[in-house]
């Protein structure tokens, strides 16, 4: 396996107030992956991104970007990183092409009109190259932020809430654009409040809470390990208790005796599913009027993880 593009070891950050924003973070990011960092407000996501991008000075620990120590070789390390912040912070009176070219120059890159054109075309901004930022829609302004972050050809791109404040259609366009960047070889770390966004795109998921990284796992493994399938069975007639022959089944009964809830893990669902239960209910002469199923989403798992630590 190739060396990670980002390696964080024992990272801590304590502010003068005494607040510990980061508590010993260990994390490796693989080349070419999309990594989603999830966590509630105040969990430490922005502090972690700021530390990697040189905006926050860590209290302890090390950060290596493509093998470079971010503290000793900060200029070279930072040149390999692109950051798309949440805020639309750019010169509203400047043109699209000029603001992207300026961002490239900030990292010591020589003027390269062809490189700027390539970035603008990739983000469907070429036709707007002469427009002032203030004339653009919110979605186009966000594209400009991404273009600015890509202007110096970074290997690692941070997207902090990339689709915040955009409508559903534009959010889908953003997702397609991010996947395209990954296909072009850019490693992407994104934070998001739209957990559907992480479920759609991420290869791996990290969950941070109260300054600690509580989980890092491939998305598929996480959904398989912590995901659940829940079936709600509405009976034709109420029962007082779950019959003895169902004692070993993961069933719960409602107070009115009309609803059974059957809960199994994702792995169990693949092995036996609902068919055996339906057959068993039929054999026991228990008629039912409806059967509804729900499979855990990444959001369900995230809420369970964070609420379990509250």
Q: Would you kindly provide a brief summary of this structure?
A:
The protein is an alpha/beta fold and 310 residues long. Helices cover 34% and strands 27% of the residues.
Question: Can you tag this structure with a few keywords?
Answer:
single chain, 11 helices, 34% helix, Rossmann fold, elongated, 310 residues, 4-stranded antiparallel beta sheet, Alpha-Beta Plaits, 6-stranded mixed beta sheet, alpha/beta, 2 domains
Which SSEs are present, and which pair or pack?
Layout: E1 6-14, E2 20-29, E3 34-38, H1 45-52, E4 60-65, E5 68-69, H2 74-78, E6 81-84, H3 96-106, H4 113-122, H5 138-150, E7 156-160, H6 168-183, E8 187-191, H7 195-201, E9 204-209, E10 212-218, H8 219-226, E11 228-235, E12 251-253, E13 259-265, H9 266-271, H10 275-283, E14 288-295, H11 298-308
Parallel strand pairs: 3-8, 3-9, 6-7, 7-8
Antiparallel strand pairs: 1-2, 1-4, 4-5, 9-10, 11-13, 11-14, 12-13
Helix pairs in contact: 3-4, 3-5
Distance between the termini: 37 Å
Just give the CATH class of the largest domain.
Alpha Beta
Which fold name fills CATH's third level, the topology of the largest domain? Rossmann fold
CATH architecture of the largest domain: 3-Layer(aba) Sandwich
Mean pLDDT: 87
Q: CATH superfamily of the largest domain, called what?
A: P-loop containing nucleotide triphosphate hydrolases
| Total number of beta strands | 14
**Overall geometry:** elongated
- Main beta sheet, described? 6 strands, mixed
Order of helices and strands: EEEHEEHEHHHEHEHEEHEEEHHEH
Uncertain residue ranges: none
**Helix percentage range:** 25-40%
Count of the separate structural domains:
2
Q: What portion of residues belong to β-strands? A: 25-35%
Category from helices, strands and their pairing: alpha/beta
- Strand order in space, largest sheet: 6-7-8-3-9-10
Radius of gyration: 25 Å
Q: What's the total helix number?
A: 11
